[in-house]
Write a structure and sequence with these properties.
The structure holds 2 protein chains of 2 kinds. Chain A is built from 2 helices and 8 strands, in the order αββββββββα. By secondary structure, chain A is an alpha+beta fold. Residues 29-34 of chain A have low confidence and may be disordered. By secondary structure, chain B is an alpha+beta fold. In chain B, a hairpin with a 5-residue loop joins β5 and β6. Chain A: InterPro entries: Emp24-like, GOLD_dom, GOLD_dom_sf.
Chain lengths: 208, 227
């Protein structure tokens, strides 16, 4: 028959180990359960000779897509570089106008992608990027239901996906149009100044 | 975060790691680093009557521990939003964690600028700040579970509502496209007009200069008694 003192010690030891195991289990669950995912769509201005980096923590096995496009500035090109947590370069392109890169995260950690305008001396660029990590979060938190979706619900899901791609195409169209429009506006101001300059230069010399 | 399975855990290990994991779960999202006085601006090209919600979270770099602190009270961020005409729509100071919302009333490029306005400058001097940022535009800004709870919608009704919101966003974007195309056309026509007037003016001035030169030379030769 164990003495009361040792029973108490034994109970407290069991309690401690129980708490540790529970904490460990919860931690493992949090690490293993993939995150809700999502997309980040950002347009920012990249000054000349500058480099800007963005980071995201991604779980292993998540399928990610990085898409970028240069909207205004110079020759509409930028350097892009994507690195995994160990610093290994997954994607590296110089002077690209538009590109899309899909990869599956091979390990957990912080992935880093950078846009560089260091090759340009005086033009600053406006860059748009869309970084999609995993799938979009489901509409209902309890999406892992026992029953399958009804026909109506699955029709709604396919319409939703189709509309998402319509919105995506609209965004790309808008970016291309913004490129064309910025060139047209540049041309407009240049024609105004250049024509005045030409007149003064030519006929000034003539008269003199 | 990964790779601790195996080996002996200290007494506080699991609890601390759990806390760390919870923190990282909460901070999932894109982040970037900014310096002390640096201002970062982002551009959102949106149609009118579109709601934009931005969420940010800041973490300060601790030079001694060489790690980003999970949360730092006393850190502030100043958020400024300008509409396409340059008018300030929103200019407010938020804490180390904040959420800002605005609705556009004119279509076009809205500029969202963030810069830190720390009250603990001594600690922050020469340091860097990690900013987690998430900007949701239009129908992405809608919180569907909240809408379902508020309007008491069934699943199917909620899905239909989501589809309606998406279609509304597509319509707004198409209206904006029409407005942009009109601007583009006006710019191109203005360039066309300018080039046309430039070439006409050039021709007229050339002819006039030519006439003037001939007259001047003629009177010059007559004066020199060569003609």
């Amino acid at each position: 028959m164990p003495r009361p003192g040792s029973a108490q010690r034994w109970a407290s030891a069991v309690g401690r180990w129980g708490c540790r195991l529970l904490a460990l289990l919860l931690l493992l669950l949090l690490l293993l359960v993939p995150g809700p995912g999502g997309a980040s769509e950002i347009t920012f201005e990249l000054p000349d000779n500058a480099k800007q980096c963005f980071y995201e923590d991604i779980a292993q096995g998540t399928k990610c897509t990085l898409e970028f496009q240069v909207i205004t500035g110079g020759h509409y090109d930028v350097d892009c570089r994507l690195e995994d947590p160990d610093g290994k370069v997954l994607y590296k392109e110089m002077k690209k106008q538009y590109d899309s890169f899909t990869f599956t995260a091979s390990k957990n950690g912080t992935y880093k992608f950078c846009f560089s305008n260091e090759f340009s001396t005086f033009t600053h660029k406006t860059v748009y990027f869309d970084f999609q990590v995993g799938e979009d979060p489901p509409l209902f938190p309890s999406e892992n239901r026992v029953s399958a979706l009804t026909q109506m619900e699955s029709a709604c899901v396919s319409i939703h996906e189709a509309l998402k791609s319509v919105i995506d195409y609209q965004t790309h169209f808008r970016l291309r149009e913004a490129q064309g429009r910025s060139r047209a506006e540049d041309l407009n101001t240049r024609v105004a100044y250049c024509s005045l300059g030409w007149e003064v230069q030519e006929h000034g010399a003539n008269i003199w | 975060m990964a790779g601790f399975g195996g080996g002996r855990l200290p007494a506080m290990g699991p609890a601390a790691l759990l806390l760390f994991a919870l923190c990282t779960v909460g901070t999932r999202g894109l982040y970037f680093h900014i310096g002390e006085t640096e201002k970062r601006c982002f551009i959102e090209e949106i149609p009118d009557e579109t709601m934009v919600i931005g969420n940010y979270r800041t973490q300060m770099w601790d030079k001694q521990k060489e790690v980003f602190l999970p949360s730092t009270p006393g850190l502030g961020m100043h958020v400024e939003v300008k509409d396409p005409d340059g008018k300030v729509v929103l200019s407010r100071q938020y804490g180390s964690e904040g959420r800002f919302t605005f609705t556009s009333h004119t279509p076009g490029d809205h500029q969202i600028c963030l810069h830190s306005n720390s009250t603990r400058m001594a600690l922050f001097a020469g340091g860097k700040l990690r900013v987690h940022l998430n900007i949701q535009v239009g129908e992405h800004a809608n919180n569907y579970p909240e809408i379902a709870a508020k309007d008491k919608l069934t699943e199917l009704q909620l899905r239909a509502r989501q589809l309606l919101d998406q279609v509304e966003q597509i319509q707004k974007e198409q209206d904006y496209q029409r407005y942009r195309e009109e601007r583009f056309r006006l710019t191109s026509e203005s360039t066309n007009q300018r080039v046309l007037w430039w070439s006409i003016a050039q021709t007229v001035i050339l002819i006039l200069t030519g006439i003037w030169q001939m007259r001047h030379l003629k009177s010059f030769f007559e004066a020199k008694k060569l003609v």
